[in-house]
Fold these 4 entries.
Entry 1:
Amino acid sequence: MVPLLLVLLLALILFGAGFALKILWWIAIIVLVVWVLGFVVRPTAGGGKRGRWYRW
């Protein structure tokens, strides 16, 4: 009974980790798209130059 519970616990942990990693991949892709769009859609600064889209 104990080995069966250990196998089920291991499967549950691996499923949870896989789901979390899949969510992290989607978040990383969304952040990458927003970052690339930031370079394309930059506001113009004074004098017609392209300004920075970030604050720092």
Entry 2:
Amino acid sequence: MKKLLSIIFLLVCINVNAQQVQPPYAARINRILKQLPAGNQQQLDSCMMQIKALGAAGLTEMAVMLHAPGKGDNTRLQYALSGYATYISAASREEMRKTAILAWSKALKLTTQPESKIFLIDQLQLFGDKSVVPVLKQYLLQPRFCDPAVRVLMQIGGSEALIAMEAALEKAQGTCEISLIKALGDLRYLAAENGIIKRAQSENPVLRRTALFALANIVGGDSGPILEAAAEKVGYGYDITGATAAYLLFVANLGHQWPTAPAMTAATNILRKCKGDSLEHVRIAALKIVADILDYDANNTLMLAADSKDREYSAAALALAVKIMNAANAESWIQKAERVDAGKKAAIITMLADSKQRAAISLFTKALKDSDPQVRMAAINAAGQLQSIEMISPLLVAMKTADTSTVKAIGDVLLTIRSSEVPGHIAVAMQHAPPSVQVILLQLLAQKQAAGQERFIRLLLNNPDPAVAQAAKSTLSAIGL
């Protein structure tokens, strides 16, 4: 009996002692967590300083407190850790970052829960530096952790991170291989070109697609023929590996390098090879590359492209021309507008208006009298886009003989022109306009609150057309007279 009682007493003492032993920073950490989320900036700053005071050991203890999914509530703890990671990312907190890196590195070794590891790795994007590269190397070949580790290394950048990812690529498989290839491509790491080229012929379409786009971003000397061959193999059409899109991206990136001749040759070859409606989008992409390379000197190329019977291709040429428009180029397009059919003339007028070329106002004014309605409508809209005061009188003259839809369109444009001269021109012109036009012009004066034109409005109060007289009366009422 005495032996049994002794054993029970010993077990009770051990249990009580175990309950009394707590991690050294547990109480301080719990006090901090109770203050979060902070109600204001002052309270938040106070909490961050308390976390700082824990030091590396306390921060490590805090980090390893994260529960496994379903085993506890991590909300406050994650809020505290991510908040601190954000807080120390400021430029003036270098020492705090160094301490946190030590703590996070140790916590990653101690933490066994995958979700906790991923959370801690993700936070390193905010404050990690090249000193964490050795810590993250081991995760680059582990499918569960590779992607977050790669994101951190991409954020850190620098030779250490790049070399680590390139070395890992030699042994990587599956999702890790894809994550590393994409990262090295996005970072345009030329030293990884050969390793990625090996994957460009993979039977795995996802891996092959990733490799092709990575090579397109790296723009290495050995990548061009491989990417071109891949695009030609699919007839410059669509396939699951995106071979055509990757080659176009490669040529576009090549155009940003000097000399530009290789890119020009490649883009020109694409234009020559890609015929037919199904490859229209490829030709447009190649044309854009040419325009980007030649810049303001691309005008002649775009003028020729605008003559294409392919409407989408022609429209793309005009859209690209807007971006390189200057006085000399505008003059060439103005002259071209006089030589083309009505559809293209209207498109050129719209393009010149989009590029705000006031030198084309004479073209627009002349186009108001064109026999083709789409040309006239393009000129009317151009007047509104340029806020052209010079076209106010020609627009009002055109209203006198225009059809109902054109009259309304001109009225809408006159309403948008913000010049103080508009009401005066309208008031004078409406005296000799047809009744239907007079009504619309009176409505415009009402909308513009043209009180200064009272005398001209009153002249129409006794108009023999009752609709005009009523419109004059309503206009005076609308402007408070």
Entry 3:
Amino acid sequence: MTPQPNPQVGAAVKAADRAHVFHSWSAQELIDPLAVAGAEGSYFWDYEGKRYLDFTSGLVFTNIGYQHPKVVAAIQEQAATLSTFAPAFAVEARSEAARLIAERTPGDLDKIFFTNGGAEAVENATRMAKLHTGRPKVLSAYRSYHGATSAAINLTGDPRRWPNDSGAAGVVHFWAPFLYRSPFHSESEQQESERALQHLEDTIVFEGPGTIAALILETIPGTAGIMTPPPGYLAGVRALCDRYGIVFILDEVMAGFGRTGKWFAADHYGVTPDLMTFAKGVNSGYVPLGGVAISGAIAETFARRPYPGGLTYSGHPLACAAAVATINVMEEEGIVDQAALIGSTVIGPGLHELASRHPSIGEVRGMGVFWALELVKNRETREPLVPYNAAGADNAAMAAFGAAAKAGGLWPFINMNRTHVVPPCNVTEGEAKEGLAVLDEALGVADEYVV
């Protein structure tokens, strides 16, 4: 689709937004949201006709890109047939979505509880774990994000938790492995894995294993930095949870449904959790949907005991129809394999090549279409390009980098001192190379801040 400029409509959209829309995570008078006129595939455009290659996939959810015709048609067909129905009934779209998801989840995660999004999935997964075990606490990692509802934001390990932290939510945070900024002073992935596991076991022991219901981890942390776990770590966590009777929850809200080049990131590590949360890519974000995949043992807890939780729109037919169509499209078009291929042959090598020329890049990490560049002031000291949780003048370097990327027609995903490379899973080779070329130019701006 060729963008058609229409600045008058854009001005009206912007004026209504500024008058009435209250935006998340923002000081309302300090933001200037772009008015979006349309989107298709890996691109979106504004009312001035400027087109952007979206290296954010929305908020890492448009795994099959924008406006895929088969998914749009499925939503339209479902709306004409049965646009909505209460969750207590068996509905074809809901049943089929659950079946397709359960076929792809690891192990015996065969029961699906549907939610409206990822945060609600985390809320319900932790509730299930507490009821299953009769224990009050949940362990979660620093450098994590699990959502913005009450339990989920307390589980989160980044600064968005701070203003929302109740201090009495039964959450205990620990350090997960991250060799580049190792809290354990490790010199190898093996050391980092071993020391992180020892730290985790110490935390469990000192907290009291009998008080801990669950341990939740993003299989590969997303917003916090796309830190792929070192070999053996997730298997070690699984073993610790088994040893102490703790429910192991993997959060696949961002990493799931093809983003890492497998249906779920857990598939890379041969680990099956007791509960798995999902959302985002399950239907490419076309209609809000999330859920919890539940193991046989936990499902059995609620076989004759009512589960005290539910949502008015659980398994909404429009959302489930979108999920069915999305999963089928991913199969028919080989999109999961495409994500793996484009990551291993284009994005990964391209980012490493950029790192060889740009001193602002401290580390490249990721897989599939799930990558991060750690930007630094100094490679030797690894000082971040901007301070932790920087704002205003302190964030000037990243703001300049972001502005340069947008000027070049690339919409970047920026968080603290990192830029993430997370295009749709079906991004083409040409689109990926186009984005890397713009990143190359923008990183030249970041390099100006290196000391």
Entry 4:
Amino acid sequence: MPGAFAQSPAMCEAKVLEGLGWQLLTAAVAQPRIEAGAPCDRADLPAAQAAGDLRVLVPAHYDLAQHPELVRELLQHPATRCAFGFELGAATRRATRRLQDNSHYRFSALQLGWIGFGMGGAQAQGWQRFRSFGRGYAPLGSNSRALETFYSGRVRSECGVGRQVAQLATLRELFGDAAFDQAFTAGELSIGTFLTLHDTPSVLLGASAGERFADGKAQKTARLGRQAFVGAPGFIEHVFDRSHLDDIHNQAENFVITDVSAAAAAALARHDGFAHYDRLNRRIWEIATQMPGTGRRRFERLLYERDRALRQALPAAQQPLLRQLDQLLADPFYAGFEIYVHPKGVRPVGYHIVRLLDRNPRTPYSLNLALHNLPTTIWQRWLHARVDHCGAAGSAVHPPPPQ
């Protein structure tokens, strides 16, 4: 990649590619040869580069900025989306860690209102209401200040808004505060009920969402590799109807995917997405129904915390059932597919499947990805923001990520 800065669009796009990890290597070739490798299968960019991914072999003295056709090809290459996944994953983990660390960001039941901003009210925390009963808010003033409220303020919401906040906080971390404030309007960062967002300019679900990626059972995503999952929103939903619910506030759990291990990604690819795990979830539930007993968080303590005393105290007739559950939950998906759920923070998906055996023991649960625009609208807007910053500011397109 050229080292000297230039403000031309081609040079700025070349710098974006460099920042994402593409490397130009001089070789005895007459024409450039792309050796993309498999970055979507790696844990991070250093691992991808160590494996020889994201390389372009070029003739001596080749200046990428002078070849816009190759720049365009690389920008549209699937491996570039995987490299963007490293950026997105790091931003997701920064955002969810900060949300998780705010002990004053609480959960509220639906009948208490969807969002609450404490005694000072929404405006004091950088938000303005546009729907009654806490069903719709948009930033008032600085976008980054509004999201900071959920990092450090006294606020509450149910888990659907928690997912929206995690998605928007990820965008803040991904773009950086200055670009986040400039690149999005207040309406595009609306939060509230999911139905409310459809009637707003929301960049998540409204008029600004653009092309959305539909892959409910994660078949397409599983084929793309582990980095294709990271940052994506989804939900865990009860299978049987509402008459089978004992705890209505745990009828579903909305999540954002924070990380996927290599073993979990391989399992998802081997089984073609979530449908296989819906069947395993049902089998886990069926076995659990054969294990009567009492005690708060009983299955959570048995199967997730693996409470030794509790496991040893199980009746002899239930010990074979416990071994079956252990075997099913030993699938690497349950331990290696990590999600953020408000207010539980970041935990493996197996924790939630087990937890729901206690909360709603009369129904199994299924897994779904929600509609999202990470590989479409968000990728394009991030790319344009980086190129615009390069051209306008005369500095590197890829500043160090926030700490």
